[in-house]
Amino acid sequence: MEFAGIKSLIFYAFALLTVASAVLVVTVRNIVHAAFSLMITLFGVAGLYVFLQADFLAATQVIVYVGGILVLILFGVMMTSGRLQMRIQIERGQLILGGLVALLILLLLFGVISNTPHWEGIKDDGSTLEPTTRTIGEMIMQGEFLLPFEVVSILLLVALIGAALISRKEVRDEE
Amino acid sequence: MLIDYLPILLLLVFAIGFAAINLALSHLLGPKKPTPSKLSVYESGVQPVGNARQRFTIRFDLIAMLFIIFDIEVVFLYPWAIVFKKFSESSGYFILIEMLVFIGILFLGYIYAWKKGGLTWD
């Protein structure tokens, strides 16, 4: 029982960290501060994945989002704004539109949560926890998700060619 | 078990705590008597020339994109590697071919970026 108490304390700490830094992302004026808050948010989400017993997803979250996507976002800031002190201005119209999109995503997530059949399989004490990497590997390689797996490589190929094309254009402009 | 993640949590707490406490203590206890020579760049630093806050070349973007794409490829290698032995015993080389197709398609993009001069930095 002692362990469960500490566990929920850590869970709420991670949840608070995630929500608070997410609020900072959209409220803070400095775009670089927003990007670094996003890092904390993404990291907090990785922590929540651990509590959902999705260990592979948690590791992937840290590897890809915290380690990769965030660097890309920071590079994007460095390449576009010209000045890192660019201030963000929020207009009323954007606020309404953004709120609407957020509401729709919330509804979508509620739909997904209520339609997830194996939700009860996750025991609160973490006793059902086992590494998910093997299960994921079996499901990909056994044929059920083999085609999506190969399609992912096409998707990544498209992203790669797109990035190469964009930077190529810049090189030509400079010459 | 969730308790297996305790070392990671402890590492996080100690890493953040060590940095935060050291910064706070030196801020609170350290004497502050700045002089121009104290505030100058030291320890193999050089005086900055111009403003660092200007636009960066987009070539960084290609490097970052390449990094993320092959990052994701590596992520997919993990579940594949774990089941490799089991599947290669039951169905032979098929699992190897599956991954070779995956890597092969990405390798095409790599060659494309290479030929387009995305990896040169002149």
Topology diagram in text:
The complex is a heterodimer of chains A (175) and B (122).
Chain A: H1 2-27, H2 31-51, H3 55-80, H4 92-114, H5 133-141, H6 146-174
Helix pairs in contact in A: 1-2, 2-3
Chain B: H1 6-29, H2 36-39, H3 59-91, H4 94-115
Helix pairs in contact in B: 3-4
In short:
The complex is a heterodimer of chains A (175) and B (122). Chain A has 175 residues and is an all-alpha fold.
Percent of residues in helices of chain B comes to 55-70%
Nearest-angstrom radius of gyration of chain B?
A: 25 Å
Q: Which H/E pattern describes the elements of chain B?
A: HHHH
Give the count of helical stretches of chain A: 6
Shape of chain A: globular
Shape of chain B: flat
In terms of DSSP E residues, the strand content of chain B is under 5%
CATH homologous group name of the largest domain in chain A: NADH-ubiquinone/plastoquinone oxidoreductase chain 6, subunit NuoJ
**What gap, in angstroms, lies between the N and C termini of chain B?**
51 Å
Query: Which pair of chains forms the biggest interface, and how many residues does each contribute?
Result: A-B, 54 and 49 residues
* Overall number of strands of chain A: 0
- Biggest pleated-sheet summary of chain A: none
Beta-strand residue fraction of chain A: under 5%
Task: Determine the number of helices of chain B (DSSP H or I, runs of at least 4 residues).
Answer: 4
Question: Unreliable segments of chain A (pLDDT under 50, ≥5 consecutive)?
Answer: none
Instruction: Give a count of the beta strands of chain B, DSSP E runs of length 2 or more.
Output: 0
Protein described:
The complex is a heterodimer of chains A (175) and B (122). Chain A is mainly alpha-helical. Chain A folds into 2 domains: 1-100 and 123-128, Four Helix Bundle (Hemerythrin (Met), subunit A) (Up-down Bundle); 132-175. Helix content of chain A is 77%, strand content 0%. Chain A is built from 6 helices and no strands. Chain A has helices at 2-27, 31-51, 55-80, 92-114, 133-141, 146-174. In chain A, helix 1 packs antiparallel against helix 2 and helix 2 packs antiparallel against helix 3. The model of chain A has no long low-confidence stretch (mean pLDDT 82). By secondary structure, chain B is mainly α. Chain B has a single domain (2-115), classed as NADH:ubiquinone/plastoquinone oxidoreductase, chain 3 (Methane Monooxygenase Hydroxylase, Chain G, domain 1, Up-down Bundle), CATH 1.20.58.1610. Chain B is 68% helix and 0% strand. Chain B is built from 4 helices and no strands. Chain B has helices at residues 6-29, 36-39, 59-91, 94-115. The longest helix of chain B has 33 residues, at 59-91. The relative contact order of chain B is 0.06. The interface between A and B is large, with 54 and 49 residues.
